[in-house]
Amino acid sequence: MTDLVTARLILRPWSELDVKAVVGETRLPSWAADFPSEGDVVIAGVLLENPVWLSPSGHRLIIERATDEVVGSLGLFWPPSDGRVEIGYGVVPSRQGRGYASEATAALTAFALELDGVHTVHANVEPANPASARVLEKAGFTRYQSTGELIGYQRTAG
User: Fold this and answer.
1) Which residues have a Cβ under 8 Å from the Cβ of 43 and sit 6 or more positions away?
2) What is the pLDDT of residue 1?
3) Taking a C-beta distance cutoff of 8 angstroms, is the pair 41, 29 a contact?
4) CB-side neighbour CA atoms (13 Å) of 2
């Protein structure tokens, strides 16, 4: 499976070893001290139950190139529905505020929009989480709806 490489990050698909280590609470030497976060544990559990999602079109670990440490994860909730695929992301607290989530989200979104059957990548953000909204805006997403409970953001092909 192909890694995506940005200026500061490597986005590597989760392996079975990664999933089993997170679920089994076995620390790997390549992890940042505060990885995995609660969200990473949830995703690992989902991947354990749905191994077909261990693909380049699914979830990836965020690796900081300067240290080779896993500092978060992000992923596409596959398969697309009517050409739309949802994205989710998270960076451990020790690496937040560095723009890593936006950089990773922009790269995975560009990758997704090149895939057959995908014309839109979207995400929902709670109004109480303005940092997540800023991540999406920096990654080229625009707000397209609000239900009061969630704000929808999307980025389309072209």
Assistant:
1) 14, 59, 73, 75, 88
2) 53
3) no
4) 6
- The span from the CA of 151 to the CA of 128, in Å, is 10
Tell me the Ramachandran region of residue 82: left when phi exceeds 0, alpha when psi lies from -120 to 50, beta otherwise: left
- Tens of pLDDT, residue by residue over 87-117, are 999 999 999 999 999 999 999 999 999 999 9
The yes-or-no verdict on residue 148 having pLDDT over 70 is: yes
Residue 9 CB partners (closer than 8 Å, separation 6+)? 62, 63, 64, 65, 100, 103, 104, 107
Q: Distance from CA of residue 36 to its chain's centroid?
A: 13
- Encode pLDDT of 38-78 as tens digits: 999 999 999 999 888 888 788 999 999 999 999 999 999 87
Helical H segments across the chain, by residue range: 16-23, 38-49, 100-113, 130-138
Verdict on whether the full-model pTM lies above 0.85: yes
List beta partners, residue 63. 10, 70
